Protein 1
Amino acid sequence: MSCTGLVAKDSSEHAIGIRTIRNDYIPLVGAIEALACIQAVNMGAEIRLRDLTVKGNARKICKKLQANKPDRSLIMAYVVDLKEIRKSFQTCKFNYTPRSRNKVAHILARKTLKDERYTYLGTEILE
């Protein structure tokens, strides 16, 4: 089991949405960060962002998503899905960021795993 903590921010770095998602079944260890990217992109689409930058602490996933060549790894299906989903945005980037710079998302995820409570705050609450 794992948990994804997502924090959506605007261009001024103000939080516009927060969500935690508990993942009960993860088939591969490497799939956790890929799944987190999919969940972040889906959240961006739900709150109707045109431009999206997903920041995560999985350098390998970010490199796979930036590469123009086909992925042949065990998480290929996630990578292909992400490359297709990101076409719905005007711009969609995947950038590596160290965990120390993404503390809020990690705190949310840990708290959700510990308390088994979910967080979902829509944009109307945070504006």
Protein 2
Amino acid sequence: MVNAAFRIKVLLFLNPALNAMRDTYSMSAISSATSGVLHASQMFNRAATNTVKAANEQGDLVGAIVDQKQAEHALKANTAVLKVADDMQERLLDILV
């Protein structure tokens, strides 16, 4: 099976008018979700650091663990968006090819 990214490049080469449709829908979702994954990863790293500090210094351990869970849910949500955007691109290519 041909890689979806390769098929997109071929289609865009053959029909540049598809750029507007691609940029409007799937690429903005991918870009947004990628940014969200990065942010969630940074959130989790901060929360993990705070968890260790709280455990060692009698700080807000519960709050740090809650922050870790929020980062985990944010990561799962953004990963799901990436999967849906990838599926949308693949289905669009199937329709167009």
Protein 3
Amino acid sequence: MFQHYSVFNSKEEALEHPYPEMNKEEWTRVCDLFASEEFQRRSAINKENRAKLKIVHTWERGKNGSVTVAVRVRGKVIHEVEISLRCWGRKRVTCEV
């Protein structure tokens, strides 16, 4: 959601373009959070801390429900694995790597 919000130049502009499948009331609360001083302060601290990391772990959810996990060192992917999870209800049934 923050990526969607950060595309716009101001909170007011972001409010005119709600996040997909989110009603205006919810989007207004989210925008208020992202625009708050506390969120901005913590975001700046987190960016500084991430910049200090030598090894970065990322994950991305695929359209088919799979998750791709990557380990990067200085921007280069050194290991990547796709994990496919099949779940029914709250109980995980299988995990394929």
